[in-house]
From TrEMBL:
Recorded GO MF terms: G protein-coupled receptor activity
Subcellular location: Cell membrane
Pfam families: 7tm_3, ANF_receptor
Transmembrane segments: 474-499, 511-532, 544-568, 588-611, 631-653, 665-685, 697-720
SUPFAM superfamilies: Periplasmic binding protein-like I
Organism: Sander lucioperca (Pike-perch)
Protein name as catalogued: Olfactory receptor C family, u1
Keywords carried by this UniProt record: Cell membrane, G-protein coupled receptor, Glycoprotein, Membrane, Receptor, Signal, Transducer, Transmembrane, Transmembrane helix
CDD domains, alphabetized: 7tmC_V2R_pheromone
Domain G-protein coupled receptors family 3 profile stretches: 474-735
């Protein structure tokens, strides 16, 4: 919901959406009296041309009195109701709606003045004045405000927003960045609930998730299971309609049609939508839009005297003054929907009833309202009118809450006591927002966490987060090596599968060889979990994947080493070792040696799982913090134990016949493996920041390449280049399986 676009939802974006991006503005401008407005007073006797010129609009000629006309804007700053203060709060309210698409060059005159939006504006004024009279809230600090008319238009809203950002510079052109892409700021849209994408967005109203659930329950309770929907091109409507449609179908409902109102609908498009509504058999229509967006369609339906449609309205227009217009009674009579509960604000009704026109500068918005209501007759009394301006049962309380929420937040930030409460926030304010720039100061103040001093040591700047990225030179090199290892392992696997019936592949249980190749591929792939920005899942998976993959690899090597030793002892009289250590026993040994590592990793992750952490010791390094450091060293220690056993057994078989002695290959591979990981520990401990991760990835890749090259490359050499050696001669028959 957005004050920039929707006149019935001005309070939503009022402060929470815009304020979090723009304000408070800490001002050194001298305090001024009450309200000041930056344009002249609109007088009743002025001609339309004079009135436009008084608003800074030039080049008006031949303006009709009955139809809305567009005139070009000058570079003058738009109207703004403001009051100076130590802290200035910005607000946007849709006092007018129905503006043309190309508002950057043109402004729509004679558009509707929304009394409710004017009440929301005055709610903000009332809340600020009430806070300034409260000596216990923000003592010694005067709140100010700068309130502008968004005209219920995207371009106007952004132009006003930029004016709020820079009070001295008016935005000249937005066409280059706006183009035709939809711009949406809807305070009830479920899309804004994503705190990762909108971390600073806050609101004083619930999201559309609850409204949609209520609307689905409403229509299904009444037995309306054949309905149509109408929406617009903005996120508020699209997310709302999508959520309603999904939940409605789950409850057994069916959608007859869906109409989308374009941003600037043509007459033909409006007539086509009206034809669909008239011809459809569905008489229940659910609408997520605003009264301004619906106006053209409703005018067409009223002109056709269309009746009998049961409208179900979203909160954006269910309380709109449009519903009370006699012209639309036949079309909209009986409309249902949910609105926000009203809360009585003490003194607010009396405040509204005492709003009067004045020729003084700064009262143009008030005069516009009074002219709309009484034609500038100052003797009229608001007590005797039936206007939505004085109907305080609407949701003005949300504007009131938003202003007070900001006031309490500022009060907390500025209230730094000796007890140390709010220490972090107070330090941030004192260092980042109040602190003077003095390169020759005799005192230094420590920057807040994750902030660093600039090169001149005069102010704190946000630190840059670092991690081993896929886009870094080091990251690219490691990823390239990883992919190279995976490709080489895949090629070796393909060669072994192609020549799986040859003696050199069948020797020493080919099933174990393929399992070893699979585990090597996993060893290469697990290194990718260490590259990129750490997340909850990558932190949990990286060490577990590393530990289990390497243990599986070493378990296969252990089995192959034992098989080699037993095979060359099989010819000894009475030897039954190889028979007792068949394929089934080999699989059981692999399972038994891998299971302890799996249990260790599972217990580690369940008991004290690593998590992403910003380490400010070396710049700001995003890394995986391990709350239980022994877990990593136990995983690494078990890998080292298996590697040592493999090395010991392979060393014992190094002098066996050379015709096909895999023990020598395993010995060389284990020497490389242990050398890599023994040198890894001191390098890992002493490496700073993201280089710690790089060292571990390098160790994983180096040891994996060592195993692949030492064990499988010699075999591939014989298979592909020396096939005459790939025969049974010299290989013990019992060694073949």
């Amino acid at each position: 919901m957005d004050t920039a676009f929707y006149p019935c939802r001005g309070f939503y974006l009022l402060l929470w959406a815009l304020f979090n991006l723009l304000f408070p503005v800490f001002s050194d401008v001298k305090k001024r009296e009450a309200l000041s407005l930056e344009r002249g007073v609109v007088k009743e006797e002025d001609t339309l041309t004079e009135r436009l010129s008084g608003l800074g609009i030039e080049g008006v000629s031949g303006v009709g009195s009955t139809l809305p006309q567009c005139v070009k804007l000058t570079d003058s700053e738009p109207l703004a109701l403001q009051s100076e203060g130590d802290v200035v709060i910005g607000g946007l309210f849709p006092l007018h709606y129905v503006a043309p698409k190309d508002y950057i060059q043109f402004y729509l005159i004679l558009c509707s003045f929304d009394h409710r939006a004017f009440r929301w504006m005055m709610t903000m004024v009332f809340a600020v004045e009430e806070i300034n009279r409260n000596s216990s809230l923000l003592p010694g600090v005067k709140l100010g405000y700068r309130i502008m008319d968004s005209c219920d238009d995207v371009h106007t809203s952004l132009q006003a927003l930029l004016s709020l950002v820079n009070m001295n510079t008016q935005s000249q052109s937005l066409s280059s960045c706006l183009a035709d892409s939809p711009v949406s700021y809807f305070a009830t849209c479920t899309c804004l609930s994503d705190k990762h994408m909108y971390p600073s967005f806050l609101r004083t109203v619930p999201s559309d998730f609850f409204q949609v659930r209520g609307l689905v329950q409403l229509v299904t309770f009444l037995g309306w299971l054949w309905v149509g929907t109408i929406g617009t091109t903005d996120d508020y409507s699209q997310y709302g309609i999508q959520a309603f449609s999904n939940q409605f179908r789950q409850q057994g409902g069916c959608l007859a049609f869906h109409l989308t109102i374009p941003t600037s609908p043509t007459s033909a498009e409006i007539q086509e939508m009206a034809d669909t509504l008239q011809s459809s058999t569905a008489r229940i229509v659910v609408v997520f839009a605003t009264e301004g967006q619906l106006l053209d369609l409703l005018l067409e339906l009223a002109q056709r005297n269309v009746t009998g449609i049961q409208w179900v309205a979203s909160e954006a227009w269910v309380t709109a003054s449009l519903l009370t217009s006699a012209r639309f009674h036949p079309v909209l009579e009986g409309t249902l929907g949910f609105s926000f509960p009203a809360v009585r604000i003490p003194g607010f009704k009396e405040f509204l009833l005492n709003v009067y026109p004045s020729p003084k500068p700064g009262m143009a918005f008030v005069n516009m309202f009074w002219e709309e209501l009484f034609e500038l007759d100052a003797f009229e009394d608001l007590r005797y009118t039936n206007s939505s301006f004085t109907d305080v049962s609407d949701v003005s309380y949300n504007v009131y809450k938003a202003v007070y929420a900001i006031a309490h937040a500022l009060h907390t930030l500025l209230n730094c006591d000796s007890a140390g409460h709010n220490k972090g926030m107070c330090l941030y304010l004192s260092v980042v927002l109040h602190a003077p720039l003095a390169a020759g100061s005799t005192e230094c103040t420590k920057c807040p966490e994750y902030y660093w001093s600039d090169k001149d040591k005069v102010k704190c700047i946000a630190g840059i987060e670092e991690f081993l990225s896929f886009h870094d030179t080091m990251g690219i090199i490691l990823v390239t090596l990883t992919l190279l290892g995976v490709v080489m392992t895949t090629i070796v696997t393909a060669v072994f599968y192609r020549f799986r019936s040859t003696p050199i592949v069948k020797a020493n249980n080919s099933e174990i060889s393929f399992l070893l190749l699979l585990s090597l591929k996993l060893c290469f792939l697990c290194s990718l979990l260490f590259i990129g920005q750490p997340s909850v899942w990558t932190c949990r998976l990286r060490q577990a994947a590393f530990g289990i993959s390497f243990v599986l690899c070493l378990s296969c090597l252990l089995v192959k080493t034992i098989v080699v030793l037993l095979a060359f002892r099989a010819n000894a009289p009475g030897s039954r070792g190889l028979k007792l250590f068949g394929p089934s026993q080999q699989r059981i040994l692999i399972l038994c040696t891998t299971a302890p590592q799996v249990c260790l990793c599972a217990g580690w992750l369940l008991g004290a799982a690593p998590f992403p952490f910003k380490n400010p010791n070396y710049q700001i390094v995003v890394e995986c913090k391990e709350p239980w450091p022994p877990g990593f060293y136990l995983v690494l220690g078990y890998i080292g134990l298996l590697a040592f056993i493999c090395l010991l057994l392979a060393f014992l078989g190094r002098k066996l016949p050379d015709t096909f002695n895999e023990a020598k290959l395993i010995t060389f591979s284990m020497l490389i493996f242990l050398a890599v990981w023994i040198s890894f520990i001191p390098a890992y401990v002493s490496s700073p920041g993201k280089f710690t991760v790089a060292v571990e990835v390098f160790a994983i890749l180096a040891s994996s390449f060592g195993l692949l090259l030492c064990i499988f490359v010699p075999k591939c050499y014989i298979i592909l280049l020396q096939p005459q050696r790939n025969i049974k001669k010299g290989i013990t028959r019992k060694y073949l399986t």
